[in-house]
Known about the structure:
- The complex is a heterodimer.
- Chain A contains twelve helices and 13 strands.
- Chain A is an alpha/beta fold.
- Chain A folds into two domains: 3-215, P-loop containing nucleotide triphosphate hydrolases (Rossmann fold), CATH 3.40.50; 218-295, Alpha-Beta Plaits, CATH 3.30.70.2020.
- Chain A has a six-stranded mixed β-sheet, sandwiched between helices. In chain A, strands 11-12-10-13 form a four-stranded antiparallel β-sheet.
- In chain A, a hairpin with a 2-residue loop joins β8 (198-203) and β9.
- In chain A, α4 runs antiparallel to α5.
- The two termini of chain B are 25 Å apart.
- Helices cover 74% and strands 0% of the residues of chain B.
- In chain B, α7 packs across α9 (210-232).
- Chain B has one domain (3-232).
- The A-B interface holds A 48, 51-55, 70-72, 75-76, 78-80, 82, 85-91, 94-95, 97-99, 101-103 and B 1, 3, 6, 9-10, 13-14, 76-78, 80-81, 83-91, 233-234, 236-237.
Amino acid sequence: MTAAISATALTRRYRDQVALDDVSFELPTGSITGLLGRNGAGKTTLLRILAGQEFPSAGSVRVLGEPPADNERVLSRMVFVREDQAYPDIKVRHALRAASWFYPNWDAGLAETLAADFNLRPNKAIKKLSRGLRSALGITIGLAARAEVTLFDEPYAGLDAVARQIFYDRLLAEYGEHPRTILLSTHLIDEAAALFESVVVIDQGRIVLEAAADGLRGVASTVSGPLLAVDEFTAGRPVWARRRLGSQASVVTVGPLAEADRARARALGLDLVPLTLQQLVVQAAGWPGLAGAAEHPEGVSA
Amino acid sequence: MNTLLKVARYHLVQPIPFLVVAWGIVAFSFAVNVIVYAFAPTSHPAGAGGVPAGRYTGALASLFVYFMVLGVNSIGRWLPFGLALGASRRSYYAGTALLAAGLAVVDGLVLAVLQVIERATDGWGVQMGFFRIPYLLSGPWYLTWLSSFVWLTLLFVYGMWYGIVFRRWGLIGTIAFIAAQAAVLVAAGLLVTRANGWAGVGHFFTGLTATGLTGVLAVLAVALLAGGQATIRRAAI
C-alpha cells in the first residue's frame, strides 16, 4: 500500500531558526498517528507544509501520492484543522456552509450533531467565540469533512474535559465507520494516547521517535526503592535518568522486562512502573537513542 | 462544481458587504447630496438638460473606493480560511477576481440605469450630477456600463494585490510596495523628461477619449491582475 503521507529530507529554515531539519517519515493509509513534541518543536510547520500552506526550504512531501502545494487533486481530499485558524468575519453557520461546498464527502448531519454536542450556536459570529468554541468549530469541520487525509494541529486548545471526551469518542467512531489517515498534534499526550496507533515525536525540528504505539508500551520503566537494591537491579541495564533521595532512588531503565526480572524486583522490594507515553516523550526530547530502542526493543544498547 | 465558482460563492456566503454595504454607501451619499442640492438654488432653467456648473457631486467615488476596500478584504482573513478549505492559491485568486468582475458587471449596469434615470429626471429634480461624472462617466449608458465595469474591476484587483502584499510582507512590505510604485512613476517621468517627451504625453492624454481611457485602464487592470497572481503564488498562510 502506498503511504498516505510521506516526507523526504524535509527542511524549513526561517531567518534565525531551523524549524524542520531533515525530516523523513511515512504514514500508511488508514491510521491515526500522534504528532508529539514540545512547543516550537516544528509540529505546526510540518503540518502546514503537509497541507500546502507553507513551502519547504528543501526536501519534499507527498500526500496521497502527489505534492500537495496548490494541487487541488490532493487538497480536495485533505482537511487541515489549525489551532490558530483565521476565519473571516462570518457566523458559525456560514463557515460550515462554505465547508460543505468544498469537501466532496461532507456530512451535514454529522456537522449539526457535533455543533450541538459542543454547544456551538450556528448564529454566533466566529470572532465572538471563546477559544474553546473556536476549537470546536475546527473539530466540527475536520470531522464532518470526512477527508481521506485529516490533519489536526492542537485541535482542542481551550476545550473543556467533556468536550475533549466528545472529540475522542467521535473521532474513534468516525474512524471506525469511515477509515481515513489522521495525523494529530497535541500536548495532552496521556489523554490522547489511547487514540494513537503510532506516534512521531519531533524535537527541535528533528524526528526523535517514530514508532507504533504498541511497541512503546513497556519500552522503559521506572524502578524505585532502596538505593542499593535499585543499583543492583539496574546494573548492566541502560539507564536514562537517575534520581536519589536519601537512601531511596528512582531510575528510568530502558528495555522490556521479562517475568524473571519482575520477580527479582519483587524480591528486592522494588516498584516497577512502565513509562507512560507522555513520560516517554519527555525523555525522548533530547534522547535520540530512544528511536532505536522502540524499533528494536530486544537489543537495547543505549 | 468548479473550484473558481466555489471560491466566488465562498465570498458571497455572507453577502452583506457586497450588496447591502456597497449600495448603502451609495444610497446614503445620494440622499445627503439630494438634500444639499434641493436647498442650493440654481439659475439654470429647469428641463434644459445637462448639469449646471458646480452641481456635479463626485460622491459616487465612494463606491469605487469601497471596491478597493473589498479587494483588500477579500484576501485578509478570507484567504487563510479559503485555502484551509482546500482551494489552491491559483483558484482562490482567479475565483475572487471572477467574483470582482461579476460584481462589476452587475453594479456597472445598475450605475448605467441610474444614470439614465438621472438624465430623464433632470438630475433627480434638483439638477444634480450624481451618476454623471464629467469626462469619465458622461457618455451613453453602455459606455457608462463599460467604464464602470473596468474601473470597479481595476480597483478591486488593485486592492487584492495590496492584500496579498500585506499578507506576505506585512506593513513594512506594503510601504515598500507603495514606494516602489512611486519610484516607477518618478522613473517614467524622468525618462519622459530626458526624451523631451512631455508634449507627446500631453497630446496622448488630451487626445484620449473616455473610451480610450477605459481601454488603457483595462490594460492596467490586466497588468495588476498578473502582478497579484505572481505575488500570491508563494504566499504562506
